[in-house]
């Protein structure tokens, strides 16, 4: 079989499969629908060529169903782990530590989108005195990610988590250990104490627990927010504020 024939047969197989999908979506859910007709590649092809919108509608419905199933599964995982998500003792908290509304951010200090989101989050906690922002640093984008995440926990111990977080997020250019040390010093941190804490078993455990939690609830990209127990992917301050208003 030459390459052209192989491609033709593959395309016909795809057409038959898509035709079956169309029938299942529009026919299988209807109890009064007749038994499925025998499908041939030519008959399915003829129908789809005549009414191609059927194919697009079928694919759209399939994608919507898949997204809904993923959302339900995601919410189930978050619900099962909400106490650790919201109240893990080692996680730095910005804003009102006793706030009634909780926003959790899974982020990587080396993530450009996380840098874009940071000003919005700072505005949110400034405008909403009843919001607590829980920071969950993950570290998979660059060699500096782990070092800066450890430094954040150390900054929290010195009461300077916000200053350090903002300093890193406002940093222009590539992160390095030297740059992070400079940011920490500018934030007012004692670098010697910082590095002692960074090397501690307590920080090592917090790092591991946070990474495990992110994997458990299927955080596959950053930034990922959990606002009052609901996973949110956005960079929009107004979107976050609307969700806070709804929670109130």
Summarize the structure.
This protein has 248 residues and is α+β, with helices and mostly antiparallel strands. The protein is 62% helix and 10% strand. The chain folds into two domains: 3-80, no CATH class; 84-247, 3-Layer(aba) Sandwich (Glutaredoxin), CATH 3.40.30.
Description:
Strands 1-3-2-4-5 form a five-stranded mixed β-sheet. Helix 1 (3-28) crosses helix 3 (53-80) and helix 6 (143-157) runs antiparallel to helix 7 (161-169). The chain has two domains: 3-80, no CATH class; 84-247, 3-Layer(aba) Sandwich (Glutaredoxin), CATH 3.40.30. It has eleven helices and five strands, in the order ααααββαβαααααββα. The protein has 248 residues and is of the alpha+beta class.
Number of helices: 11
Q: Count of DSSP E strands?
A: 5
Strand order within the widest beta sheet: 1-3-2-4-5
Helix-strand string = HHHHEEHEHHHHHEEH
Number of domains: 2
CATH topology of the largest domain: Glutaredoxin
Topology summary:
Blueprint: H1 3-28, H2 41-50, H3 53-80, H4 82-87, E1 93-95, E2 101-107, H5 112-127, E3 131-137, H6 143-157, H7 161-169, H8 177-186, H9 191-198, H10 201-216, E4 224-227, E5 230-232, H11 237-247
Parallel strand pairs: 2-3
Antiparallel strand pairs: 1-3, 2-4, 4-5
Helix pairs in contact: 1-2, 1-3, 6-7, 6-9, 6-10, 7-8
């Amino acid at each position: 079989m030459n390459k052209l024939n192989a491609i033709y047969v593959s395309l016909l197989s795809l057409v038959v499969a898509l035709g079956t999908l169309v029938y299942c979506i529009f026919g299988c859910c209807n109890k009064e629908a007749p038994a499925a007709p025998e499908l041939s590649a030519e008959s399915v092809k003829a129908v789809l060529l005549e009414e191609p919108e059927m194919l697009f509608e079928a694919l759209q419905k399939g994608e919507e169903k898949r997204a809904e199933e993923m959302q339900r599964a995601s919410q189930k995982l978050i619900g099962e782990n909400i106490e650790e998500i919201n109240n893990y003792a080692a996680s730095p908290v910005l804003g009102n530590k006793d706030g009634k509304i909780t926003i959790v951010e899974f982020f990587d200090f080396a993530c450009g989108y996380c840098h874009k989101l940071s000003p919005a989050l700072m505005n949110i906690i400034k405008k909403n005195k009843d919001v607590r922002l829980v920071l969950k640093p993950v570290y998979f984008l660059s060699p500096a990610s782990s070092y800066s995440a450890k430094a954040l926990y150390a900054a929290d111990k010195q009461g300077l988590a916000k200053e350090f977080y903002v300093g890193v997020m406002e940093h222009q250019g590539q992160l390095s250990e030297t740059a992070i040390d400079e940011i920490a010093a500018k934030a007012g941190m004692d670098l010697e104490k910082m590095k002692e804490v960074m090397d501690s078993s307590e920080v090592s455990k917090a790092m591991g627990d946070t990474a495990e939690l992110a994997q458990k609830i299927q955080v596959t990209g950053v930034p990922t927010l959990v606002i009052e127990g609901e996973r949110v992917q956005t960079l929009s301050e107004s979107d976050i504020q609307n969700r806070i208003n709804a929670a109130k």
